[in-house]
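Please, structure for the following, as tokens.
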Amino acid sequence: MYKSLLFLHIFGVFLIVGGAAIATALAIKGSKSVHARTIAAFSGLSIIAERYVITPGAILALVAGSFLVHQVGYSFGQAWIVASYVLWVIAMSIGWGILGRHSVRLNRHAKRLVADGVEDSDELGREAAAPVGMIFGAAQNVILLAFIYLMVVRPGA
């Protein structure tokens, strides 16, 4: 049972890391463009990564990790485990509450412009390059590194 749970937990983390890398690369590339079709495509792909790769990975890592804590006999009150849960909630809140909404708004705006026959839009380019995406994207990536540190080092375990 332990090895299966560990596999599922690591696979969940793999999905998070892979999805985050894709979403980050798409956001960076999209932030350099004013072309409506390009921004629509990149933001659309980012939404897919967020919804169908990162989120399932985060849920899988949380569930399998929780079962691992129980299986191994760690206390759910240990600081590294509590910190992991708190960071998970923060990361999901940033992802769905801020970055996900930003991607959806950006995608809708870009698709509206494409439907209206607009090729390039400086306004859309500014929206794609908005600091909110870069700041909270970077914060989420730092949280991801903190997760990996906590899972590998398990300080206090």
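The mean pLDDT is 94. The longest helix spans residues 36-72.
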